[in-house]
Amino acid sequence: MRELGAGDERRWDEFVRAHAEGTFFHLAGWKTVLERAFRHRAPFLLAESGGRIEGVLPLGHVRSRLFGNALISTPFCVYGGILAGSDAVRESLARAARDLAEGLSVDYLELRNRRRQHPDWPCKDGLYVTFRKPIAPEPDENLKAIPRKQRAMVRKGIKAGLAAETDAALDRFFTIYSTSVRNLGTPVFPRRYFDVLREVFGEACEVLTVTRDGEALSSVMSFYFRDEVLPYYGGGLTAARPVAANDFMYWELMRRASERGLAVFDFGRSKREVGSYRFKKHWGFQPEPLHYEYQLVRAKAIPEINPLNPRYQLFIRLWQRLPLRVSQLLGPLLSRSLG
């Protein structure tokens, strides 16, 4: 049992890609992202036997006076947790993570699993869900599979003369994303974070921007892993709504994924019964519960660091009123600690 070292990245990623439960957020590149973009320590654990990797656990240590001190797999990601070739290796990695959490004197250890791995650990089962759906090989089949009302929104965007293009630069994306996030009352991530994502993951990190008459209205950064596409960071300007630019954007992403031969559209995580949750259900996606498991070290209860917590409502309302430039300057100071 040891930490990921220089030169281990290729073998680590080969193990992740070959494992049935591997996700984009288990890849070794996240260690670089966490360290360079946020300056968090990232002790990525691997179990090895005879020179062969038998299990991995990507961890990030996030410390904040406002939001606590935690060891998370994986910070800023919707999935994480242990990937192992056997139950014995899984338990060995779990013990190593608990020992590390106690050694760092964190408040808690958090593993973000798609399925329950440790039935005896405290678990946050009801808050988050994910939305995943197969992509049909023919774009028309995917359009027909969208429920009627949502399909009408997609057609509205098409009739409005919207166009979509892959963006090599991040300027338009970051302006749209940061505006959208500010409007939701959430601190924006630093521009540096997105630069590092593009640098580390290359073509697996792509930006699609929707325009009308040359004006950028909505934009999304998506991750590609195996035969899956996951739109992860995105948003739209006020002018996007009347012409259904966000609806058109996700349809265009799905259409392009179909043409590329991809098999799964992962709409990502949402909290139950919030706007994004309902939006994704309107597309015909069914929610799948996520299982976030905890080991409490100094904390007495599972943390509730999310916008639904009443203690954050005043902050959200005040943040929504900030000038965009101010939110772009202050947001990174807070968002690096949210994990």
Explain what you see.
The radius of gyration is 20 Å and the shape is globular. Helix content is 37%, strand content 27%. It contains eleven helices and 16 strands. The chain has helices at 9-18, 29-38, 87-104, 139-145, 148-159, 171-184, 191-201, 245-259, 275-282, 313-319, 324-335, and strands at residues 2-3, 45-49, 52-57, 60-64, 68-73, 83-84, 108-113, 123-124, 128-134, 163-167, 205-212, 215-225, 228-236, 264-271, 287-289, 291-296. The strands form three sheets. The protein has a seven-stranded mixed beta sheet with strand order 10-11-12-13-14-9-15. Strands 4-5-7-16-8 form a five-stranded mixed beta sheet, covered by helices on one side. Strand 4 (60-64) and strand 5 form a beta hairpin. It starts with a strand and ends with a helix. With 339 residues, the protein is of the alpha+beta class. Helix 5 crosses helix 8 (245-259).
Order of helices and strands: EHHEEEEEHEEEHHEHHEEEHEHEEHH
N- to C-terminal distance: 25 Å
Unreliable spans: none
Radius of gyration: 20 Å
Quote the average pLDDT.
91
- What count of helical segments does DSSP give? 11
The main β sheet shows up as: 7 strands, mixed
> Roughly what percent helix?
25-40%
Beta fraction of the residues? 25-35%
Short note summarizing the structure:
The chain has 339 residues and is an alpha+beta fold. The chain has helices spanning 9-18, 29-38, 87-104, 139-145, 148-159, 171-184, 191-201, 245-259, 275-282, 313-319, 324-335; strands spanning 2-3, 45-49, 52-57, 60-64, 68-73, 83-84, 108-113, 123-124, 128-134, 163-167, 205-212, 215-225, 228-236, 264-271, 287-289, 291-296. Helix 2 (29-38) runs antiparallel to helix 7 (191-201) and helix 5 (148-159) packs across helix 8 (245-259).
